[in-house]
Amino acid sequence: MIVESALQAESAVRRDIVPAGDYYMKVVKKGQTVRLLDLEGNQAADTLFYNANDPVERYSAIDTIREQGNVYLTAGTKILSDQGNEMLEIVADTCGRHDTLGGACATESNTVRYALDKKCMHACRDSWLLAVTENEKFGMSKRDITHNINFFMNVPITQEGGLTFEDGISGSGKYVELTAKMDVIVLVSNCPQLNNPCNAYNPTPIEVLVWDAAA
Ligand SMILES: [Zn+2]
C-alpha cells in the first residue's frame, strides 16, 4: 500500500548514509520515526530489530505475518516481537511491499545458490556479525542474528507456493518509514549481493533518517 510521508528531510534529527556492504546499528527511541531511503533504487536493506532495553526480545517474522494475515510488509504493518509486543509500525511506504521470508545472504547460501567460488564474497550476515562485534555496548553476539526483514526486496510467492528472487520494485527516492513503539535497536545490512537481481547486480547506498516525535 502506497502511503507518502509528511515529514521533511530538513527536520530530521539524524541522517546517515549507509554504503552498500556497510551496516547501520543505532537506537531509535519510542516515538521517533525512522526512514530507510533507497537513494538510487533497486537496493535491499536487510534489517533486524531488537528491544533496546532487553535485546533478547527481537523482531519475529512469524508473529508479524500471522497477526496481519499477510506475508508482505507495507504501510499499516505492525512489527511484532517474539513476545508478541508491537515494536514499530510502518507508517509510510512508497515502495509498496517488502519481504520477510527470503532471509539474508550469507557466504554459505551464496555457495549453495551460486557457486563455490562465491564463498569469499561479502554477505549481509557478515555485516551483521561485524556490527554486533563492533558495538559491544549492546551485549549481542552471533546467537542474536535471527530472521529478518528485507526492505525494498521483491520475493514474490509463486502459484505453487515457492519463493523467487526477482528484479526489485523499488526505485530511486522510494522509502519506508516506521514509528517506534518501544526503544529499538535498528540493525541494517545494506546488501552487497552481486549474484541475484534483488539489487540489480549493482549494490548502492541507502540513507537512514530519524525524526523526533514532535516532528
Ligand atoms: Zn544481502
UniProtKB/TrEMBL annotation:
InterPro entries cross-referenced by the UniProt entry: DUF1989, UAAP2
Pfam families attached to this UniProt entry: DUF1989
Domain DUF1989: 17-185
Protein name: DUF1989 domain-containing protein
